[in-house]
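Onboarding guide, step 5: your first structure request.
Type a short instruction followed by the sequence, for example:

Predict the 3D structure of this protein.
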Amino acid sequence: MKQVYLIGGPMGIGKTTLCQQLKEALPNSVFLDGDWCWDMNPFQVTDETKKMVMENITFLLNQFIRCSAFEHVVFCWVMHQQAILDDILSRLSAENCQIHLISLVCQKEELEKRVGGDIQKGLRDEQALENSLSYLPLYDALSTLKVDVTGLTPQQSVEKILALTGEAGHTS
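The system replies with structure tokens like these:
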């Protein structure tokens, strides 16, 4: 059975880094970052662009699910609302898949530290910190497995996810 990981969390918590390492830890795996389907200049949030992004994400995920070369599909995106998760799930052809819905969470101070480091490197602006902190409590309401990454390295977080999802010992 194909394993599909849908991993959400606030901006700057470390989703992309963790998922890149998760992809490397799992045999025959592929990774999609939802932000890649949303990378535009100027960044425009309209009904049309939101619809396009959701169609792009679910098209790619379904292609990966259908492809026999992959046993594991790893996807990350902010996914801070249950409606977003439900919309993605409703569009997936996942009859022969086990879906792992995971939200990365951490202590407020940890998120401030992580996003602050990105700000210092010029990767994010001050608004990103405010947005990220405002999203953090929203994950409590989601029907997902919460993985607290406070104080963990990306590799430790991967190991925790593998243990929680029963994939420990199946890594490459």
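Each response can be followed by summary notes, for example: The chain is about 45% helix and 15% strand.
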